[in-house]
Design a protein that fits this description.
The complex is a heterodimer of chains A (115) and B (116). Chain A is an all-beta fold and 115 residues long. Chain A is built from no helices and 11 strands. The radius of gyration of chain A is 14 Å and the shape is globular. In chain B, the strands form 2 sheets. In chain B, strands 2, 4, 5, 6, 9, 10 and 11 form a 7-stranded mixed sheet that branches. A 4-stranded antiparallel sheet of chain B has the order 1-3-8-7, with no helix packed on it. The chains are: A mainly beta (115), B mainly beta (116).
Chain lengths: 115, 116
């Protein structure tokens, strides 16, 4: 059973502050690491799909880094805004030699931006 | 571009009953996956369908079954419902033929199932 851990479980941040949170995943059989943002009453939305060790991705004020050798990824939000309030999920995709794998999700980090 | 849709939004069933949940994939996608999210947990992979055949399955019993139709819509069927089946069920579509997408999933809004 694959174990994907996210921390912290929840986070309150003042508007304008920057923040970051962590996803830990198995360091073996790595294929990809996904980040999703899930706003209340909406569908989860893909932020990043990361595949290479040392990869860094950026979308506006949000960025992510990846370390496959030690099995962790960080998500950073710069200058938090109220619309960043959401649950952020990471999901691990393992390599199975071409077989179909579903994503293994963490429990998410629930981010609340306080005005 | 039409997104992923699911029906119904909410559903209440009693223990022992059977339920069918429906999903319509995003246009151009040929693969559909189903996930169960229980309270306080991350989504858990149930199974994936590609070209109308199941081609991957998570740790769920056989009473969870599915179908994928030629138009890439899909059903999740659960027989002999148990109280623990109460959860949000998410459908996600992707394009398995696109080798660059590493199985990026496009999710629907989910169906909330309550088993009493």
């Amino acid at each position: 059973i694959l174990n994907v851990e996210q921390s912290p479980q929840s986070l309150h941040v003042q508007e304008g502050d920057s923040t970051n949170f962590t996803c830990s995943f198995p360091s073996s059989n790595f294929y990809a690491l996904h980040w999703y943002r899930w706003e209340t009453a909406k569908s989860p939305e893909a932020l990043f799909v990361m595949t290479l060790n040392g990869d860094e991705k950026k979308k506006g004020r949000i960025s992510a880094t990846l370390n496959t050798k030690e099995g962790y990824s960080y998500l950073y939000i710069k200058g938090s805004q109220p619309e960043d309030s959401a649950t952020y999920l990471c999901a691990f995709l393992s390599y199975s030699g071409g077989g179909a794998d579903g994503l293994t999700f963490g429990k998410g980090t629930h981010l609340i931006i306080q005005p | 571009e039409t997104g992923v849709t699911q029906s119904p939004t909410h559903l209440i069933k009693t223990r022992g009953q059977q339920v069918t949940l429906r999903c319509s994939s995003q246009s151009g996608h040929n693969t559909v996956s189903w996930y169960q999210q229980a309270l306080g947990q991350g989504p858990q992979f149930i199974f994936q369908y590609y070209r109308e055949e199941e081609n991957g399955r998570g740790n769920f019993p056989p009473r969870f079954s599915g179908l994928q139709f030629p138009n890439y819509s899909s059903e999740l069927n659960v027989n002999a419902l148990e109280l623990d089946d109460s959860a949000l069920y998410l459908c996600a579509s992707s394009s398995l033929a696109d080798a660059q997408n590493y199985n990026e999933q496009f999710f629907g809004p989910g169906t909330r199932l309550t088993v009493l």
